[in-house]
């Protein structure tokens, strides 16, 4: 749910002349700024809703306004020159400078937003405190701090079947909870899965929507391990790197998770203990878990007595949306495949024209044909880049959201389980009371004492279950709202990115044709 | 091939020949052809079917009073059109290539039109009575049985493929034959590859259409956030629709310019090869006649020498006509390809610019979207 998934693989869109190698080595510059693509953590905005009614507090309007000022006439898209993707990032980063939109970098106490917040140096999350459940609006309060994360530099360690990839996780932050402002660590894939495991154990019962990690892939990893230096394994690594980055960005954009010590440790600590038992938590294992849970819930003989229709209709909405996204994902997938096909067909055409050009006797025609071959080569590259843009901007976005919706459904199921536990506690209490009544009649004083103790115990349990259920319900409600808003923002952001890449492609296409025209006219 | 048009009452103004309409009746296509004579501005309109075109081609092949006719590079007639049903679409593509694409047979008509224009522009062929009849006679000439003339000999010759490799006596012709074989194969290959590219673009447009339609289904009015999300999806739907239309235009441009041009060039290369082959066959015939004349017994010698002299004369005329034809061919094909390439480039350039402008508008609108 991060806003800042601006990460298109830079080599492809950066300059025309670069080969589409998955060389993320370029990113390993230690100017921290370059790597961070503007994932300034907007939840920590202190603008109270009342004073800024026209935009919601996560508004991106500010960033786009600034972007317009810095952009040349071509609509923010520099088509031929090196497109410095990170120019946008630097722009967005500096947004935390005081600007009229009300986002301020505050060291001192924030404006009072809610009564229970004490903000200096700390982040408070509305979710974990006992808030009255009617407050459904977002009330993130806190200081405007920044946290930007980038995942770069995949490196292969070891060899043979024991080989694995490590990734550099770089953080740039102004949060005081961390020891320094800029730091990086190396992590491997199982570390990410381990983080997810820890988080889901902690937060699952609270109704928080935990972003799911990227999927495990035996086939992909085996190719990498075996050391095949082909484009498909490089593609796999790049896909994974991007997915890991998006995963972390989503984790830290959740206010509760950002505060979590496990998350902070993940980002900061030099060496992490090796995570075990991660097989169950990724890929098909994860999906199986979700499906098992939903099967179990469906088999529940006690139908949940829904006091609040909201949950029922929202769950239905989520399920509908999942179906929709699945369809969209399939569509985009086929689009990507067609583009890849177009790439290879264009390459073959270019080759055949090149052969023509070299065999042709008329010299001007021969030259024109050779030029044509080059134009087609450039077109092939354009198609290739567009395919990657399609893929990373759209396909992966849709895939991420499919998994996120699965996580949302998981939360609903957790709530139903909590309700079930509450009902079971109540029925046990009822039984204990009946047992006590029987004992009263049969006059066995020693057992009576035990029965009374039982009742007290179970009354407490019932109370606890009820509180848990209420809490999970209210948290879930807020989480869903937050999720939906993030989703909207995320999609809009990605569509703009996609559109920009389309526009860039078109500009370069125009240049290609403009260059070829004089060659064609020169044929005598 | 363009040559100078003689000013006679009969000659037709080649560039005025246009196919203005085509109608389909079941399996038959009927073409409306208008033309003007070079001496007047009055136009004539006739209706012809493919059989009529075949009749014309046969008529051209079988003109008997033209010396060295075998040395002429005949403008190639496109293959028979298969009105496509969904079953024969693949067949049509295989047989006609680019000419099977495009809306409503427009590309095919253009190819036929070019054929007629080329015939009318040829010094020798334009004088043929068959052409006059074809363009002016109100009755459809194709119903008559055509004379079999050279056509037969051509198909006979095709069976004797081993003559293809027969060494030539003239260096000019030998090198023409070699380069022809080479270039012809390369042009065919390029045309096929380009066809693949264009078909791929059409599939891409289709996929965009599906995606755009799926996005249109994302409408949810339950709450403000859902409304905003729906709007975003609809916006993306519009964008993808624009991408689809762009791809359709791009592939249309491809088909109507470079595709047509490559197809024409391929077929012309074939026509040239056929002419060279005919000449080679004549050469073989001549060499056989020479041998026969040498080995002839005295009583047959005179006859053999007569045959030899006649064959030699025919061969010489064919060779001289062929030489001229080849020179015209080289000049004309270059200018034809040039025109097609320029047209293609200009169309693609303008489409790319349009698309840029449209996407730019979309981008502006998107950025202003309040979420």
UniProtKB/TrEMBL annotation, chain A:
GO terms for biological process: early endosome to Golgi transport; intracellular protein transport. GO terms for cellular component: cytosol; early endosome membrane; Golgi apparatus; lamellipodium. GO terms for molecular function: phosphatidylinositol binding. It is found in: Cell projection, Lamellipodium; Early endosome membrane; Golgi apparatus, trans-Golgi network membrane. Residues 37-76 have a biased composition (Polar residues). Residues 1-76 are annotated as: Disordered. Residues 145-274 form the PX domain. PANTHER family: SORTING NEXIN (PTHR10555), SORTING NEXIN-1 (PTHR10555:SF129). This is Sorting nexin-1. It comes from Pygocentrus nattereri. The lineage of its organism: Eukaryota, Metazoa, Chordata, Craniata, Vertebrata.
